[in-house]
Amino acid sequence: MAETKKIVATTCPFCGVGCRLDLHLMGNQISHVTTPYDDIVSRGNLCVKGRYGWDYIYHHDRILTPLIRRQAQQPGTRKPARRDDWREASWDEALEVVATRFADTVEKYGPDATAVFCCAKATNEDNFALQKMFRAVIGTNNIDHCTRLCHAGSVVALQMAVGSSAMSNSGSDIYNCDVAIVTGSNTAESHPIIALQFKDAVMRHGVKLIIVDPRRVEMVNFAALWLQQRPGTDVPLFSAMANVIIQENLCDNQFIYSRTENFEAFAKAVEEFTPEMAERISGVPAEKIIQAARLYATAQNGAIYWSLGIPEHTHGTENAFALIHLALLTGHIGRAGTGLNPLRGQNNVQGASDAGAMPWDYPGYQSVLDPAVVAKFRAKWGNAPPPARGLTTTEIADAWGAGTVKAQYVMGENPLMSEPNLRHAHHAIEQLEFLVCQDLFINETARYADVFLPSASWAEKEGTYTNTDRRVQRVRQAFEPQGQARADWKIVCEIATRLERKLGRAQTAFWEYAHPSEILREMGELVPSYAGITYERLEQERLQWPVPNLQSPGTPFLFENTFPRGRAKFFPLVYQPSVEQPDASYPFALTTGRVLYHWHGGTLTRHSNLDFAAPEAFVEINPADAPRVPCANDSPVRVSSRRGSIVLRARVTEKAAPGVVFVPFHYAEAAANTLTIDAVDPQAKIPEYKICAVKIEPATLKELVAALPLGLEQQR
Ligand code: SF4
User: Which atom of ligand 1 is found nearest the CA of 192?
Assistant: First the structure.
């Protein structure tokens, strides 16, 4: 009998653009993927990941049965497992072990001896349920996820300056502006479909792009102006643009007067940031800085888009402030085609943050320090932690090492690829008393776990993601989970129920959801900006929050009449150099990032056929620097920092600025974070991924091959 054909409309599981994917099915098999031309996000286009990268669902390495380590792991001697170190278990046994070990930890050491990494790839509902379990049942705010490692600096600065941390406008709003600053963003590889729209806006609609980036990224080919700054010099560069705007009276004085505060103190502080001073620090000619300031300030509608090149610094919060100031000076905010737009990385990093996967905020960015907020959630759930901030991801990793966090839950994340200074993180995780990982594959972190819980892929479950535009979109189940895999929210609810019983907190919070739509409904009752979002409405609409009630059509752009904090605030800045600068011993500045074919720690895309297109790590080095190593294109080299070394191939290219090298962070066998420094921004706690000092030496092919088994192969 011929297999049934059907099409299921869902949302891409990779990046924050959030393209619609139509899965064409033959039975339980996806045959191919398309997207409609009238889709508001994709506009008929998909990048290689959305079009072809989903085949990891069927990979033979996927884990489809709960696993328990045969041998108990002791703190200090915990070791990564090989396949034979695991035994298959029933769901009942695995869930009981997890609930028992967490309950024992809480009773012996208190709730703050536990912590959880939620997941920017999982749905809003998965994340809401998981943070609820840790707050309402366990009683801790030690809840974080990879937003800490990407846009935390943007989030803190935007919250302080305007009172809301999401993108104010949309990716496709580029068509409504006439000038856009795009900075710290390799848009063509990290947000490819937004990049297509940027290119189209330039080529067919006359939009002018000001690209500010140390690398010669693809979008430079479409730029009216390219400002190639040295890494870590964004504050003087953007503050000099502010200086020019004030000196040449290009400000929107009415906007500053009526909608902002602290302008005088800011204007005084910015006087020292002359274009000449910025040129000395950043290497960008003063004349170009002046041109960029004039171009942006005199636009009818000017927008700013940025990505991780801005926040991933020890002064990432200040970098974001420097961009925010430009919009406040010129009034380029609160209208279509303007705004402050931090492009969010993962498919649901916006939604996971909205859903409360944060140590400082309940769902909806409601502060854990506000007694009224705590009382509100306690009334709904029956229990909530006392008003105190929990630990961030980097603090949690430090707490493993210090022995203060003893039991760790990881849903879908891979801290042993994403944390900075990985040697330190590996040592720290060995100190845990209990580790549970919930994922599709045994990644670098899960190899240290005591229990592995197999979760359903995005094609096997229902839910919602919130994309970088604040647009809440449906994830639809195309077929039943393979093997014994279960949806993340279902696993969490099972553990929460058992934990409640063990901790004597039975029948407080509600866990018997029949469908994730009920979880979203509960989130809407607690989060005002989600109050009007229901699954029924999402069948017809793709709403952008805030959606304060069922009648609201959503909000395509923010801040039209006011800011959430009332007046937006300027913050006087001082320039602080990056923590680690190149020197005689480590003469190159290292910066890290993505390539088009892979996603984050590679757990998914390295189990996809995309790995054939980009199978190997590389270090980009400028042709003028290659003789200093010495190396040729494709030759093996060793890149070392004060924290560790990796061996990979050299890619000699003008894309790298002289003195600056680039390594993608997807490859376990040459993990870029072996090299990065674990210094963090004091306000946002985000690590300095975008600059540290390295040296490069020739290596042999034998050394390159020897590095490979440390990656995927060793798991088999
Ligand atoms: Fe998926 Fe992002 Fe590519 Fe769109 S641009 S198909 S959301 S990875």
Answer: 5
Nearest CA to ligand 1 atom 6: 50
Task: Calculate how far, in angstroms, residue 13's C-alpha sits from the geometric centre of ligand 1.
Answer: 8
Taking domain 588-710, whether its CATH number is 2.40.40.20 is answered by yes
Confidence of residue 663 (pLDDT cuts 50, 70, 90): very high
From 14, 45, 344, 468, mutation site for ligand 1 pocket: most ligand atoms within 8 A of C-beta: 14
Read off the pTM: 0.94
Cα–Cα distance measured from residue 283 to residue 659, given in angstroms and rounded to the nearest whole number:
12
299/477 Cα distance (integer angstroms) = 45
Which residues have C-beta atoms less than 6 Å from ligand 1? Answer: 12, 14-15, 17-19, 46-47, 49-50, 192-193
Percentage of residues in the chain having pLDDT higher than 70: 98
- Name the class of domain 153-343: alpha beta
Q: How far is the CA of 441 from the centre of ligand 1 (A)?
A: 22
Residue found by looking up tokens 């191919």 in the block? 32
Q: What is the pLDDT of residues 120-158, one digit of tens each?
A: 999 999 999 999 999 999 999 999 998 777 777 888 999
Q: 346 CA to middle of ligand 1, Å?
A: 10
Is the CB of residue 590 less than 8 Å from the CB of residue 639?
yes
List the chain domain ranges.
5-58, 67-150+357-464+483-532, 153-343, 588-710
Mean pLDDT in the chain?
93
Is the Cα torsion angle 58, 64, 70, 73 positive or negative in sign?
positive
Instruction: Say whether pLDDT at 710 is over 50.
Output: no
Q: How confident is the model at residue 508 (pLDDT cuts 50, 70, 90)?
A: low
Q: How far is the CA of 22 from the centre of ligand 1 (A)?
A: 13
CATH topology of domain 67-150+357-464+483-532: Rossmann fold (3.40.50)
Can you tell me the distance from the alpha carbon of 211 to that of 226, in angstroms, rounded to the nearest whole number?
Answer: 5
Domains 5-58 and 588-710 share a fold: no
Radius of gyration of the chain (CA): 24
Q: How far is the CA of 674 from the centre of ligand 1 (A)?
A: 28
Q: Which atom of ligand 1 is nearest to the CA of 11?
A: 7
Please determine, looking at this structure, whether the domain spanning 5-58 carries the CATH number 3.40.50.2300: no
Residue 3 binned pLDDT confidence (cut-offs 50, 70, 90): low
H or E, element range at 211: strand 208-212
